[in-house]
């Protein structure tokens, strides 16, 4: 067992062993984000799926209405005019074979990689390098596309790719702990709706098992799933 710091032990005393109403949980998340850096707000969602079966896998994207609070460095692998188009659309890095060669040497100075479909056969050789880091472009993740300006704009504005890990748990950063509580709630609701909309066809029985939120260095706080799913924002969500 990892040793729990005194700071975290004190914070854990503030969290009761119960499922909190969503707004209450997020207020508590903010209260327990006491680290000396800008902590992220994270959601850890256990789903009733077994991702070893193809029809029970979840991999998709969510557009967080209030953004992520992070600067996303986007790299694009394309060819010809598409390289110029990517640079003009705000890509931090854009190139063809020479960019693939740089990445192969270990120059991974980006948070997200987008590739045009015609470049994927060459990008495939980066699989061993990018796969473990979760940076490999994929059509499901919206990172294999010819529409570079739209993809770059969406990911820089707060679109995130996420997937369920092999135990069926989704870990997603949905903003910064410093965000107003209402903004965190709008983002968390968008995440919940995306997960419901993309329910795998093979998911059996109860889909939602548990939802916990936490700041990067803070304690886990359980959220009442049914209250979160019943929440209505009207046009805000």
From TrEMBL:
Classification via SUPFAM superfamilies: Ribosomal protein L1
Extract the GO molecular function terms from the UniProt entry: rRNA binding; structural constituent of ribosome; tRNA binding
Keywords, sorted A to Z:
Repressor, Ribonucleoprotein, Ribosomal protein, RNA-binding, rRNA-binding, Translation regulation, tRNA-binding
One GO term of the cellular component aspect?
large ribosomal subunit
- CDD domains reported for this sequence: Ribosomal_L1
- Residue spans making up a coiled coil are none
Q: One of this protein's GO BP terms?
A: translation
Source organism superkingdom: Bacteria
| Pfam families in alphabetical order | Ribosomal_L1 (PF00687)
The answer to keyword Protease applying to this record is: no
**InterPro entries for this protein:** Ribosom_uL1_bac-type (IPR005878), Ribosomal_uL1 (IPR002143), Ribosomal_uL1-like (IPR023674), Ribosomal_uL1/biogenesis (IPR028364), Ribosomal_uL1_3-a/b-sand (IPR016095), Ribosomal_uL1_CS (IPR023673)
Partners and quaternary state?
A: Part of the 50S ribosomal subunit.
Q: What does this protein do?
A: Binds directly to 23S rRNA. The L1 stalk is quite mobile in the ribosome, and is involved in E site tRNA release.
Q: Which family does it belong to?
A: Belongs to the universal ribosomal protein uL1 family.
Please state what the protein is called: Large ribosomal subunit protein uL1
Organism of provenance? Stenomitos frigidus ULC18
Gene (name only): rplA
